[in-house]
């Protein structure tokens, strides 16, 4: 990775009088005009509540949000782009997500992201020329069937963590390389795609395998499970998720089925599982698991995004691993689709080089000796640290960076939609009064984590809980001389029902019920700068930036803090009506 030289910020006006700037990320709280998309036809649908937001499944607009409403009515309110090319994704059909959103927020620029980089590496063929491919796939032992190549990852075209086309390209590449035996360990999605879409992808995979399998090429599914229950934990929230995956994928331990389709269909019949919650399973052939991982096998984790790939990567490669008993730890040739953590160099081998996100806001502020604060609950803690800092888990300067994690609950979040919003507000407000930082950022997980459950009523409560916390912080901001920048990283709770792409009308299922949506949205996000009358009087939003996105926030923070904004960052969203130095006094 080429790293450019670091950069020294030039401060033209110090933050005096304990002035502070705090960015609040309301995860998954997209903004759409409350009055859009209503038709009389929709209003007449049976069984639906009469409010417009309720009818369209927009939990952000349906929630009681007096504080957010105050912010939205301010002259310093606008929306920002948070999806597609504005955050480095391949196309504007790609919804935003936390990784690309927080990368853009923390780095002040847009980098071509995993989804895009893997596409180009496949199209150019470079993915099959690198060291990792040679060392993991190009091995003699795979060509003479002594060992097996395992591919593990998320089976969908969600393009947040993975894409099914990437899996197909790897399988084709392995066949061309002369590999004879491939075993797949698939995680069902239902979170970046519709909640009950697994069968679509399974049928796609089945017909692909039918086509590609031959006398000399044997590729089959060996194990799997739903992504939120099996393998894809993050930020060490619940290692038992990874343990279940290890048992199914590596040891071949778990409930047996004759095929992937059979597993999903049987499990769904027994209990109304959404895809993401499916328990682990193992495919059995002639009484034996079809594809345990053995000594000297090769293994590729084909998700490109890091947060949920780190723990399984550690479980498969770490010598002194203590997070759960592995029972058996075969020595394998392991590669990730990407390197998931730039500080830990994890994993050592990777197929595609990740974006070289350098000179992040945290780094520049550390160079300028600015005290910083970051806080969230476990589910989003890495978002305001690791993602915010360009996919690095370490700190630039431990003395200047105060990071606080509030442990998340280990229950379905729709059962506690307030999550840890109150605790995050408590700690943040305390740090505001203590003047422990100059520039901080926090994340409220609610709109996103509850949005993913598909539970509309709970999502409405989740947004109200964020609003309550927001109101407390707004009050404290007035009393502690703190400027707030309230923003979101992408939409989610703003569309709890599937909408027709063109007409934006709710799609109904065969029973006349709205089709639930669990994934993120393409919505823009709110952005407000809040605090003093002085600010409102002397600062305005530039009017010539209709396409501004999340990457414009970093410069805006620096601008408000009295720094010159670096020319390699996207420009600030604001302008000062008279001399900046005087206004920021
Ligand atoms: O839960 C996750 O992993 C993603 C969705 O796949 O959500 P977010 O980007 O908000 O973290
Ligand atoms: Mn998010
Ligand atoms: Mn999400």
UniProtKB/TrEMBL annotation:
Biological pathway: Carbohydrate degradation; glycolysis; pyruvate from D-glyceraldehyde 3-phosphate: step 3/5
Keywords from the UniProt entry: Glycolysis, Isomerase, Manganese, Metal-binding
Keyword Manganese: yes
Enzyme class: isomerase
Molecular function as annotated in GO: manganese ion binding; phosphoglycerate mutase activity
Domain BPG-independent PGAM N-terminal: 118-341
Cofactor: Mn(2+)
GO cellular component term of the entry, any: cytoplasm
Domain Metalloenzyme: 19-564
GO annotation (BP), single: glycolytic process
Annotated CDD domains: iPGM (cd16010)
UniProt entry tagged with the keyword Manganese: yes
Alphabetized Pfam families for the sequence: iPGM_N, Metalloenzyme
PANTHER family per the UniProt record, alphabetical: 2,3-BISPHOSPHOGLYCERATE-INDEPENDENT PHOSPHOGLYCERATE MUTASE
Family membership: Belongs to the BPG-independent phosphoglycerate mutase family.
NCBIfam families: pgm_bpd_ind (TIGR01307)
Protein name per the record: 2,3-bisphosphoglycerate-independent phosphoglycerate mutase
Species of origin: Silvanigrella paludirubra
